[in-house]
Design brief:
By secondary structure, the protein is an alpha/beta fold. The chain contains 15 helices and 16 strands.
């Protein structure tokens, strides 16, 4: 395995450890801010670094369209292009197979997209996805191309997508080969069907990947159904490799997933919520548009080292959001990323100290008090 994964402590099924990469250590549980188009929206890389993020996620589909993989390679790869010197994980473009179903066509060989930008046609095969991620973008961790089905999915459709993902996983691995400074993760599929998740995991391990993701969740199934899948899905994956839950989620989702054995996460929610006036806090989400904050002189969280969290009053943030000022979107996005990093840091510490069950209980009592 190119990246050693050292598990430092375990409490129940929750674990904390370090995934060691040439560009730096990734402390787990880890939250990856999403840099869809070579930027974490509204933030500089220095701001993101200051929150404590060890790794970012880039999106293959969007970077393939703009600025284009060949241009990105000529410009030195994504790290140099955006000025980020820590690890980057790229998704494969597979999620767009589902989310852009109206402008895409799926075959055994590839998925063909019509660009949402200009309508131009693009073909994405497992091999091309790996070429873009590993060779053009220069990702530290690449993901196999897979097919993700929406919820609810009839079992035959879920099985067909899972089996296609296995075949695409084998093709992705063959194209990726063996590399010393880059890793490739496989993606477990199977919707909400336990036997399909088990089959997917067994066949992925036969192919052999450097890490494993749980795909096909956060697609409309809701928190309870997601947790029911996570009651068994992580246990099907190797205990000595990182487990990555794709596209999740709200803070409560992270806590419950870590409790069930997940190590890595990504989601657009922190920055998307920030752009729309929502701040995530230990006491739950706050809508800064609400009139009750108009004269609230307290900061969002004086305990966080992030300037956006401790240096501005809720009244000022309320004003910026109501006035649709760009600074309001920046500050709330910055705070939300900082909160997510504080949350994962708190979970790492709780697991290391053997008090994660108490942390989980206290988190629920406090965080869900605001609904």
């Amino acid at each position: 395995m190119p990246f050693p994964f050292e598990i430092a402590a375990v409490e129940g099924r929750a674990r904390t450890g370090v995934l060691k990469t040439p560009r730096g250590d990734i402390r787990t549980p880890a939250f990856m801010p999403v840099g869809t188009a070579a930027t974490v929206k509204a933030l500089t890389v220095d701001q993101v670094k200051a929150t404590g993020a060890d790794i970012l996620l880039g999106n293959t589909y969007h970077l393939m369209l703009r600025p284009g993989p060949e241009r990105m390679q000529r410009l030195g790869g994504l790290h140099k292009f955006m000025g980020w010197d820590k690890p980057i994980l790229t998704d494969s473009g597979g999620f767009q197979v589902m989310s852009l179903a109206g402008i895409s066509k799926l075959t055994e060989n590839a998925v063909t997209f019509s660009s949402h930008i200009d309508g131009s046609k693009h073909e994405l095969t497992p091999e091309r996805s790996i070429e873009i991620q590993a060779d053009r973008i220069g990702a530290d961790i690449s993901m196999q191309l897979d097919q993700c089905v929406a919820y609810p999915a009839e079992k035959p459709a879920a099985q067909a997508a899972m089996e296609l993902s296995i075949r695409w996983g084998a093709r992705s691995k063959a194209r990726f080969g063996q590399r010393e400074t880059q890793a490739l993760f496989g993606i477990q599929q199977g919707s909400t069907y336990q036997d399909l998740r088990r089959q997917s995991s067994e066949q992925l391990q036969e192919i052999g990947f450097d890490g494993y993701a749980i795909g096909g969740l956060a697609v409309g199934e809701g928190h309870q159904a997601m947790c029911e899948v996570l009651d068994y899905a992580p246990e099907f994956l190797p205990a000595d490799r990182p487990r990555y839950l794709m596209g999740v989620g709200k803070p409560v989702d992270l806590v419950e997933a870590v409790w069930r054995g997940v190590d890595m996460f990504d989601c657009v929610l922190p920055t998307r919520a920030g752009r729309h006036g929502q701040a995530w806090t230990w006491d739950g989400p706050l809508n800064l548009k609400n009139a009750r904050f108009a004269e609230d002189q307290d900061p969002l969280d004086p305990t966080l080292p992030c300037p956006a969290s401790s240096g501005y009053s809720k009244a000022y943030l309320h004003h910026l959001i109501r006035a649709d000022e760009i600074l309001g979107k920046v500050l709330l996005s910055w705070h939300n990323i900082a909160f997510y990093q504080a949350l994962t840091a708190a979970m790492r510490a709780a697991i290391a100290e053997g008090r994660f069950e108490a942390f989980r209980r206290d988190f629920h009592a406090r965080h869900t008090s605001n609904g």
